[in-house]
Amino acid sequence: MLKLWKLYQKSLAVHPVKTQVISSGLIWGAGDVAAQSVTHLTTTKHQHQLSDEDERFRINWKRVATTSMFGFAFVGPVGHFWYQGLDRFIRLRMHMQPKSVRFVATKVAVDGILFGPLDLLVFFTYMGFSTGKTAAQVKEDVKRDFLPAFILEGGVWPVVQVINFRFVPVSYQLLYVNFFCLLDSCLLSWIEQQQDASWKQWISSFLDMREHGGKDQ
C-alpha cells in the first residue's frame, strides 16, 4: 500500500491531470460496485419469495463502465481544475489567509453553491441518457431526484469539505473527495432506486406549496 501511495504521488507530480482523471474513474467504478451491492441488499430485503437466481448478486459491468466514464470524463478533469482554481481565486483575488476560518468557510460555501449542484445535475442527466431514456424522461428523473439528493448531501458534504479545505493539500483534495464519493455513490444509487417514494413526494409537495404560496402573496 505504501508503494502504491508513493507511485501515486510521483505520478501526480509528473502528470497531475492524467493521474486525477484515472484515479477518479477507478474510484467511481468501485463506488458503483458498492452501490449495486447496497441496491441488491435493500431490494432483496423488501421482496419475498425470490428465486435463488434473483437472490444471487451479479455485478452489472456495463453500469460500472458507465459510472467510471463519469469519473474519467467529468469528475477527474473538472474536479482537478475546480479545486486548483478555487484555491487560487480565494487566495490571490480575495486575499484571504490560507487555512483561516474565513478562507475555509468561503471555500465550503462556494463549493456547495456552485460545484455541488452542478455535479448532481450532470450525474443524474448523464446516468439517465446512458440508460437510453429520452430527454423528457431524464427531465422528470432530475426533478424527482435532484432536490432530495441535494438536501441529504447538504447535511454531510459541508463537514467533509471543512476538513478537506483545512487540512488536505490542494493537489490531494480531489482524491479525498473521490473516496467520500464511494459512499456518496451508494446514497445516489439508493435515491435513484427509491423512484417515487413517499418522502420524495413530500419534499416535492412541500416545495410546490411554498412556491404557490409565494405567488399568491
Question: Can you describe this structure in just a few lines?
Answer:
It is a multi-pass membrane protein. The protein has helices spanning about 1-15, 15-45, 50-55, 60-95, 100-130, 135-155, 155-165, 170-195, 200-215.
* Beta-strand content bin: under 5%
Mean pLDDT: 85
First and last CA, distance:
61 Å
* Rg of Cα set: 19 Å
Structural class: mainly alpha
> What's the helix-strand series?
HHHHHHHHH
Q: Write down how many β-strands occur, each being a DSSP E stretch of 2 or more residues.
A: 0
The portion of residues assigned to helices is over 70%
**Largest sheet, strands/sense/barrel:** none
SS summary, helix count: 9
Label the overall shape.
Answer: globular
Low-confidence stretches: none
